[in-house]
Specification:
4 strands; 387 residues; 4-stranded antiparallel beta sheet; alpha+beta; 9 helices; single chain; disordered C terminus; Outer membrane efflux proteins (OEP)
Length: 387
């Protein structure tokens, strides 16, 4: 539609079409002098009027249409990048829920095996009824946790499949790959990343295009204050047979409305759009700095949680061997196992937070880390000069 608007702007409006005027008076009689009226020749006039558009109106209309087309393109890019970031978020969330389900299944298998072990020990008079009851309670609680984890995974899959929007694979799309810390972002310090965001964020380019539209609209409103004259040839033959050839010219007189209010309105809209562009740039700067700080904090959280898994897992395996050897009780085994599950869940939570912080950073930088770096030395769209 925006391309069609450019094609329309390149042509003259219908108000510039020429006008043909024909005035024919075949029933013309001389003045009655008492002897009766005598018919005369037909009075005939024809003229061709061509309005002449001044003030570069056509160029300004085309500038408005081109800027609107550019804005539409950047809006499309913004929608695509938003869909890309949202898909990444949902994919990582699905992976996170899958890993949480894996941990829940591991705990369920452990508790089921523990129940069977305690029952065998009871038969051999090596475990009490209280131990069997405690193991069964833990097993039932784990089964409920497994069902909840399964439901969370199904919900995450549903959102991912809806986001992908591929009917042929809507029933079997699942996230693949491990849940891990995203790769490094584009190199550079904070100010360089801010410049990168200012040069790549689609909403900044869309706001700049809106400023260009308003600037061209101001120029068009000023050009509309110039009256559009009409000039053309005229032919006339009067009732006596005399023929006249000449040129006719006409022009509206801007008395009742000289176009000043419209110009002031367009200038106000231009100033509004310039302020909006400046606000968008400031908002992008704040978003980049805030997301960089968040990303740094999440990386520190992941680096603190990852080294704790292996020691706790080793102690849990050691405690399980001690329990089977009869050197510890069931309560301590369950406590250590719970600490291991908590550590694994904490690690998964930290990794998921890292992926979400990375998604925020992708959105703040205009997806530059995903789709390739933008030249950071490219100057961001500045404030355009006044028209």
């Amino acid at each position: 539609m925006s391309i069609a608007a450019i094609a329309v702007a390149r042509r003259f409006p219908t108000s510039i079409n020429p006008t043909v005027s024909i005035d024919a008076r075949p029933w013309t009689f001389e003045r009655n002098t008492g002897a009766g009226s005598r018919p005369l020749e037909t009075d005939f006039t024809i003229s061709w009027n061509q309005p002449i558009e001044l003030g570069h109106r056509r160029a300004y209309r085309e500038a408005v249409a081109r800027a609107a087309f550019t804005q539409t393109q950047w809006n499309v890019v913004q929608a695509e990048l938003s869909a890309l970031v949202q898909t990444y978020r949902l994919h990582q969330t699905g992976t996170y829920r899958r890993e949480k389900l894996r941990v829940a299944k591991q705990l369920a298998r452990f508790n089921q095996a523990l129940v069977e072990t305690v029952q065998r020990q009871m038969q051999a008079n090596q475990a009490s009824a209280a131990d069997a009851s405690m193991a069964e309670v833990e097993n039932q609680a784990t089964i409920q946790q497994l069902a909840a984890a399964q439901q969370d995974f199904v919900a995450a899959l549903t959102e991912l499949r809806e986001q992908m929007g591929i009917p042929e694979y809507a029933a079997n799309i699942e996230p693949t790959g491990p849940l891990r810390v995203p790769g490094p972002i584009a190199p550079g310090d904070e100010e360089q990343l801010v410049r990168t965001a200012l040069s790549s964020r689609p909403e900044i380019h869309a706001a700049a295009a809106q400023v260009a539209i308003s600037r061209a609209a101001v120029c068009l409103a000023r050009a509309d204050r110039i009256p559009i004259p009409s000039v053309g040839p005229v032919y006339e033959k009067d009732e006596s047979g005399t023929t006249f050839y000449g040129i006719v010219a006409s022009s509206p007189i801007p008395v009742l409305n000289a176009g000043g209010p419209l110009v002031r309105q367009r200038e106000a809209e231009y100033r509004r759009d310039v302020v909006s562009l400046e606000q968008t740039q400031q908002r992008v700067r704040a978003q980049v700095k805030a997301t960089l700080a968040k990303w740094s904090q999440v990386q520190q959280l992941v680096s603190r949680t990852q080294p704790t898994i292996q020691p706790i897992q080793a102690e849990a395996e050691r405690m399980e061997r001690l329990y089977k050897a009869g050197q510890t009780d069931l309560l301590r085994l369950l406590q250590v196992r719970q600490r291991l599950i908590q550590a694994e869940n904490a690690q998964l939570d930290a990794l998921w937070q890292a992926t979400q912080a990375y998604a925020d950073l992708l959105a703040a930088l205009g997806c530059t880390p995903l789709i390739g770096s933008v030249d950071a030395e490219t100057a961001p769209p500045g404030n355009p000069a006044r028209p």
